[in-house]
UniProtKB/TrEMBL annotation:
<feature type="coiled-coil region">
    <location>
        <begin position="124"/>
        <end position="151"/>
    </location>
</feature>
<dbReference type="InterPro" id="IPR026992">
    <property type="entry name" value="DIOX_N"/>
</dbReference>
<keyword id="KW-0560">Oxidoreductase</keyword>
<dbReference type="InterPro" id="IPR044861">
    <property type="entry name" value="IPNS-like_FE2OG_OXY"/>
</dbReference>
<dbReference type="InterPro" id="IPR027443">
    <property type="entry name" value="IPNS-like_sf"/>
</dbReference>
<comment type="similarity">
    <text>Belongs to the iron/ascorbate-dependent oxidoreductase family.</text>
</comment>
<feature type="compositionally biased region" description="Basic and acidic residues">
    <location>
        <begin position="1"/>
        <end position="16"/>
    </location>
</feature>
<feature type="domain" description="Fe2OG dioxygenase">
    <location>
        <begin position="167"/>
        <end position="266"/>
    </location>
</feature>
<dbReference type="GO" id="GO:0046872">
    <property type="term" value="F:metal ion binding"/>
</dbReference>
<dbReference type="Pfam" id="PF14226">
    <property type="entry name" value="DIOX_N"/>
</dbReference>
<dbReference type="GO" id="GO:0002238">
    <property type="term" value="P:response to molecule of fungal origin"/>
</dbReference>
<keyword id="KW-0408">Iron</keyword>
<feature type="region of interest" description="Disordered">
    <location>
        <begin position="1"/>
        <end position="23"/>
    </location>
</feature>
<keyword id="KW-0175">Coiled coil</keyword>
<keyword id="KW-0479">Metal-binding</keyword>
<dbReference type="Pfam" id="PF03171">
    <property type="entry name" value="2OG-FeII_Oxy"/>
</dbReference>
<protein>
    <submittedName>
        <fullName>Gibberellin 2-beta-dioxygenase 8</fullName>
    </submittedName>
</protein>
Length: 314
């Protein structure tokens, strides 16, 4: 199982000796060591209803002015109310999504790789050309959504374009082996993402859960859609207008699960400052933020995140 992920560098894990992502061996060891497992009706893990995330059709962005504006409003509203939404007609073909999954099936490990490394690959083998196509389109999508979210706050987002570079954005392919202790075991521990926003593709297995109105809910998988979630940096920049919401992955008892996440991250020297005054958070550089997260995970075992950077009156 993975701890709160730090997408910007090496992963921070609950068990530093276990590889990234959770391998079957890790689960087996835990399972064997566990004399007593938590009952399945333990409240935290009781079976929950699957909810569909707000679904936004990005085709509308290419229609007339009023359709485009209403689509942008939907994006901003979902980012405020849910911190999560799903998009269709996102520009990534079903063939590419399926190819990515098929290729993931043949890998034994997870990949965590910067966009510049992907784009710098020679593209000769099948794997890198699919990954390259996916990464190129997904990064354009992330930028487009970031532009819309900035615009809805009354700002032009040159800032994000200039600071989120191919060398600072990451693609991670996650593989979650079946886990006999599911649903008591997390594939990824509850966390928020330390980026501006994340574009996630999950397969049909399900397991992603998020907090909505103080309760954990399970996300109904839609393999045709891409899930977008707001990260801590957008929450800080928007002064809490957009929400970086806690989420986790519960492992599946029988089936392997795959997901791909693209993290829109700036360079470490980028200063994050609220676009509205009075600001809820102090100014901080992304490097400082990342360092604080790593320190907290190391010392406390979990990430504190944005509350560390609140201005004293809050
Ligand atoms: O695999 C998933 O569905 C979620 C992954 C995730 O939250 C992350 O990598 O930050
Ligand atoms: Fe995440």
């Amino acid at each position: 199982m993975m701890n709160a992920p730090d997408h910007t560098d090496q992963r921070v894990r609950m068990d530093e000796s276990s590889p990234d992502p959770p391998f079957q061996e890790t689960y087996k060891t835990l399972f064997n060591n566990l004399t007593q497992t938590a009952p399945k009706n333990f409240p935290q893990f009781s079976v929950m209803e699957e909810i569909e995330l707000p679904l936004i059709d990005l085709n509308k962005l290419d229609l007339g002015d009023s359709e485009r504006e209403s689509c942008k409003k939907q994006i901003a509203r979902a980012s405020q109310e849910w911190g999560f939404f799903q998009v269709i007609n996102h520009g990534i073909s079903v063939e590419i999504l399926e190819k990515m999954r098929r290729e993931q099936l043949s890998w034994s490990e997870a990949f965590h790789v910067s966009l510049s490394d992907i784009l710098g690959s020679d593209g000769l083998d099948n794997l890198s050309s699919t990954m390259e196509q996916y990464a190129t389109t997904v990064s354009e999508l992330a930028q487009k959504l970031a532009d819309i979210l900035a615009e809805k706050m009354g700002h032009k987002s040159v800032f994000i374009k200039e600071t989120c570079l191919p060398s600072t954005c990451y693609l991670r392919m996650n593989r979650y082996p079946p886990c006999p202790m599911s649903p008591q075991m997390f594939g990824i521990m509850p966390h928020t993402d330390s980026d501006f926003l994340t574009v996630l593709h999950q397969d049909h297995i399900g397991g992603l859960q998020l907090v909505k109105d103080g309760k954990w809910i399970a996300v109904k998988p839609n393999p045709k859609a891409l899930i977008i979630n707001i990260g801590d940096l957008f929450q800080a920049w928007s002064n809490n207008v957009y929400k970086s919401v806690e989420h986790r992955v519960v492992a599946n008892e029988l089936k392997e699960r795959y997901s791909t996440a693209y993290f829109l991250c700036p360079s470490y020297d980028t200063v994050i400052q609220s676009c509205i005054e009075p600001s809820v958070y102090k100014r901080f550089s992304f490097g400082e933020y990342r360092q604080q997260v790593q320190e907290d995970v190391k010392c406390l075992g979990y990430k504190i995140g944005l509350p560390r950077f609140l201005v004293p009156s809050h």
